[in-house]
Design the sequence.
């Protein structure tokens, strides 16, 4: 198995301490439960999140927060005046966007809206591999040469001081709409709309890039079409563009609180029955690609998770290894056939992206294990000549998750066969909680060509000659100022609340939709439940994932999924008692709804551990002769036959190392055999040289099949005879 898979298994079977959040005031819980008519678990969760009065709880679950007035954003009036003038005069307008989902959705909705207003509008998205992130002077010059008088940036531009000055010199005005961290000096643009500006009076600073564009469109609508009526303007824009605004917000991992929650909630509700043929085609193609089931054959609830893990990667893939314009065109087209072609192309590109990602990840892990100084360097900085610039950000996320450290991956892809000190490498970084990556990069800026981004994710450009100095500098800064460079993974796993196995029901799973949309800042509720019986454990999708059937003390059962972990590595087997940390979802299959657990962590229950210890102790005593075996634990010929058949099959499949518990679980499908009986059976088979057996760690053995063709006479086993004698007290 690959180290990557092993790390997934370790994630599920973590030895970390488990805990829950402090319990809320029981009086408040009971009031919420009574007033809102919800279950105890739901009421407790609402109180834990600060919605501890009926009024606050109702506001939260009804998503009745209001969208803020876009005119509170800095420079908004100047922006809409300039755009209105450009439309009135028929000036060429170019929307300059980023190539990720936030950028693609921003470009798409602003293009559609300006086109609807009669604007002479086109768009430009840089090629990630050739141009890198953000505006470039070459692109600005090309745009200006085409007679463009106004550039509107979306999801980019806040650090493009030189590029925007170049545009101004060429007679081209620029309006910046962005949401990334601002520097002390802002670009000299007609308008710089960014809720993170130090002088901003806007009450919410965590809008996505598409959120800022959405607000710009509301302000334009109020000026040009509703006579200043902002409520009517906002309603109009919501009705037309909210789905794409929601997708961009989710994909950019923005906090789902305040108006982001409202944007996403409204958008998700409309995606299911969206009139956008491109979006419908993408859902159809995505479902078919991942599950082989056409959309018409089932009804899927569109959630933020579905957007994050299914739709967003396909939209992103175009800009990562191809042309982001493919994704933009998908959202612009109203041709059903063309939409289908583009959606399927995005799915194909995404599969290519997955293959590239896995290749780069393997290479990155080798570099880390062979050369990274874990004792002295808290930040992992890797470089390569051939890594795809569009993929390294995803791999950086995997590296950070795997090693619990900030990571930056840099590629000099496209630099040519001859290395040059001036070659520019494109880099993507990911950070850990508490370490603002873009701030740290700012303190290393003397070694960088450019940089930008967010607290946890950033991009950069660095020359080959400056890379060693940058690597030293960023590690020195983090080592000196971030806990001595000792970045420790939280030793505790925390759930919101603990519930009993029989509380894990479809009705509770359905009620949890009140917390949607979930994401950063409004995470899905995490439960801890102790004492499930794992009545069945099986692999699905070629053993890439594990499905468990968990039985409650009351006799009901619920399905639990461990995604990305094969059953062989999970270490949990049928018949064992387990504790689970999980999120609770509604799964719909063939029209039937059921509760489903998505496992965050799994461990053996204390009762299971105690039972195993007692069985192991008793077995040792039987071997020592200090304790007789129970007559029911003495194997008979049918037991020997069943055990040997299982061993032959497993060994033939290349699985010679075998946990006793797994062997026991496999046998349960043929002939239930208890732990002590199984251990005694293996000892007898080894004594008679039917198998070779070696214990490599407690309850884990290495087995070899000797493939004896002659008939085995069990009575020749002196060990078996001795066990029988001690059990019965009589010589047989």
Sequence:
């Amino acid at each position: 198995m690959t180290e990557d898979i092993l790390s997934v298994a370790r994630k599920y079977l973590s030895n970390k301490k488990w805990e829950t959040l402090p319990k809320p005031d029981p009086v408040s819980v009971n009031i919420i439960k009574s007033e809102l008519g919800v279950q105890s678990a739901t009421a407790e969760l609402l109180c834990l999140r600060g919605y501890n009065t009926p009024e606050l709880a109702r506001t939260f679950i009804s998503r009745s927060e209001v969208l803020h007035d876009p005119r509170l954003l800095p420079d908004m009036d100047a922006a809409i005046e300039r755009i209105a003038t450009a439309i009135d005069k028929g000036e060429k307008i170019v929307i300059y966007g980023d190539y990720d989902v936030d950028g693609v959705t921003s470009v798409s909705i602003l293009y559609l809206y300006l086109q609807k207003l009669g604007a002479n509008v086109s768009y430009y998205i840089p090629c990630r591999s050739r141009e890198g992130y953000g505006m470039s002077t070459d692109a600005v010059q090309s745009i200006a040469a085409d007679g463009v008088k106004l550039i509107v940036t979306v999801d980019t531009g806040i650090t493009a001081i030189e590029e925007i000055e170049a545009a101004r010199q060429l007679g081209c005005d620029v309006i910046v709409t962005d949401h990334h961290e601002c520097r002390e000096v802002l670009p000299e643009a007609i308008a710089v709309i960014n809720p993170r500006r130090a002088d901003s009076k806007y009450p919410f600073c965590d809008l996505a890039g598409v959120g800022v564009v959405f607000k710009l469109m509301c302000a334009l609508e109020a000026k040009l079409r509703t006579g200043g009526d902002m409520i009517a303007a906002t309603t109009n824009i919501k009705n037309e563009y909210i789905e794409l605004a929601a997708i961009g917000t989710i994909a950019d991992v923005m906090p789902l609180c305040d108006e982001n929650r409202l944007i996403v909630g409204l958008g998700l509700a409309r995606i299911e029955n969206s009139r956008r043929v491109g979006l419908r085609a993408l859902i159809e193609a995505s479902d078919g690609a991942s599950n082989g089931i056409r959309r018409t054959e089932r009804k899927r609830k569109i959630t933020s998770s579905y957007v994050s893990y299914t739709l967003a990667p396909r939209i992103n893939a175009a800009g990562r290894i191809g042309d982001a314009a493919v994704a933009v065109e998908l959202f612009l087209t109203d041709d059903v056939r063309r939409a289908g072609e583009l959606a399927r192309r995005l799915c194909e590109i995404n599969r290519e992206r997955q293959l590239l990602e896995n290749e780069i990840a393997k290479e990155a892990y080798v570099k880390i294990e062979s050369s990274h100084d874990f004792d002295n360097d808290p930040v992992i900085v890797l470089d390569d000549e051939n890594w795809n610039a569009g993929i390294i950000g995803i791999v950086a996320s995997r590296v950070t998750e795997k090693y619990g450290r900030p990571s930056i991956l840099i590629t000099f892809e496209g630099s040519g066969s001859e290395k040059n000190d001036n070659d520019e490498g494109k880099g993507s970084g990911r950070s850990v909680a508490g370490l603002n990556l873009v701030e740290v990069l700012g303190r290393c800026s003397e070694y960088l060509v450019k940089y930008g981004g967010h607290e946890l994710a950033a991009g950069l450009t660095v020359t080959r000659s400056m890379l060693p100095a940058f690597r030293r500098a960023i590690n020195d800064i983090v080592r000196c100022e971030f806990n001595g460079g000792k970045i420790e993974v939280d030793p505790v796993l925390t759930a919101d609340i603990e519930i009993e196995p029989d509380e894990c029901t479809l009705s509770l799973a359905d009620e949890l939709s009140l917390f949607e949309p979930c994401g950063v800042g409004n995470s899905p509720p995490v439960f801890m439940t102790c004492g499930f019986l794992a009545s069945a454990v099986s692999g699905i999708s070629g053993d890439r994932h594990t499905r468990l059937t968990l039985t409650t003390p009351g006799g009901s059962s619920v399905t639990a999924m461990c995604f990305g972990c094969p059953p062989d590595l999970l270490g949990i087997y049928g018949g064992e008692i387990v504790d689970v940390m999980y999120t609770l979802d509604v799964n719909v299959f063939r029209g039937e709804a059921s509760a489903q657990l998505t496992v965050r962590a799994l461990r053996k229950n204390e009762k299971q551990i105690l039972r195993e210890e007692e069985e192991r102790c008793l077995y040792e005593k039987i071997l020592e002769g200090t304790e007789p075996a129970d007559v029911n634990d003495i194997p008979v010929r049918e037991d020997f036959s069943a055990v040997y058949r299982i061993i032959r099959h497993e060994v033939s499949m290349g699985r010679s190392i075998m946990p006793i518990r797994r062997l026991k679980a496999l046998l349960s499908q043929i002939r239930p055999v208890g732990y002590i009986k199984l251990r005694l059976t293996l000892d007898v088979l080894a004594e008679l040289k039917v198998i070779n057996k070696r214990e490599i760690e407690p309850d884990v053995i290495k087995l070899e099949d000797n493939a004896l063709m002659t008939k085995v006479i069990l009575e020749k086993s002196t060990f078996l005879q001795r066990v029988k004698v001690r059990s019965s007290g009589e010589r047989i």
